[in-house]
Amino acid sequence: DENATSVSLGRFTGNVKLKGVIVMGEDDGTHPAEMRLFRNIPHMSFDDTAREPEQTFSLNRDPTGELEYPTKIARFSNVYHLSIHFPKNFGAETTKIFYIGLKGEWTEAHRHEVTICNYEASANPADHKLEQITPQTRFIS
């Protein structure tokens, strides 16, 4: 569709539990009429919009940003990348979006560093020689 719009909000700096979305547009035909959310598809293109979204919303015109569309928390509890597709508007040739607000909780991403370890299948005693230990006793008088 020529008046479809897609927004990739990019990779978040942590994991997000997305709870709601606000979309502000003009109070006319350019306001988006439908919103489709896709999670964790980093290099999404318009071709990817043919797949099933995580959630779809029918939108109302909201020029003041008063409406919040709640997400299905179970589907959006671990989001690191969000793409939004607006397949249609209220009849205009172009779609105008003034503001997209996201409501949720951010947590720091757990990044696991690569750890380099050496493991011995069987110990070689020659590799583990210790100097002779001479026991010493100290008395306090």
UniProtKB/TrEMBL annotation:
Gene3D superfamilies, per the entry: PITH domain
Top-level division of the source organism's lineage: Eukaryota
Entry's Gene Ontology cellular component terms: cytoplasm; nucleus
Stated name of the protein: PITH1 protein
Residue ranges of domain PITH in the record: 1-122
A Pfam family matched in the record: PITH
Parts forming coiled coils: none
Annotated family: Belongs to the PITHD1 family.
